[in-house]
Amino acid sequence: MNEQQHPRPTTPGEPPVAPGAPVTPVTPVMPVTPAPPGLPAPALPPLPPPRRGADWMFGGVYGTVLASGLLAALDQKGGEYTPFYDASWVLVTAATAGLAHGYSHHMSTHQAGSAGHRWRILGRALWNEWPMIAATLPTVLLLLVAGLADWDSHGVTAVGLGVNTALLFAWGAFVALRVGYKLASALLIGVADATIGLAIIAANAVIK
Q1: What separation in angstroms does the CA of 106 have from each of 48, 88, 101?
Q2: Are 49 and 127 in contact (CB under 8 A)?
Q3: Which residues are CB-contacts of 50 (< 8 A; sequence separation ≥ 6)?
């Protein structure tokens, strides 16, 4: 015995369904609940953290090597010795190199957020380059004292390269201890960094 099919109930304005016609199932439409007002805006990406151990070593070693190279290059044999001019160029070059490195690092990483937030990230990235500039200050101070005391240029260059080589050792050993190396390993890292300074001293002796 065939079961009797009942017509599907229709909505107002819809034509009735003829008896025996195939019935198409109707998918219920779920009501859209509007987002409640007053929800907080999506959180912005956090600012980059301040420099820590390994980053300090990068900035310190880079700045010290930069100062040693400039000190050796600006000391021209037979030329006029201008320690104040040399000191200003060491400082300007270090600041320019730090700004260029911080800016290029910022541009190579995309950060979502508002324009103000991106400017704050850029400011933090530039500020994080301070170890590079700070590492050149011993050379700058040495040149200023040499200008005031009228020291010999060759002696100032030799002392500056020696001091920077010792600073390279100190940068490497100190930061290695900070990041967890044992004393023996930290001293070896310091020796490896000091080798860069010795290489500059050797190159300065060979070239001049």
Answers
A1: 10, 27, 9
A2: no
A3: 124, 128
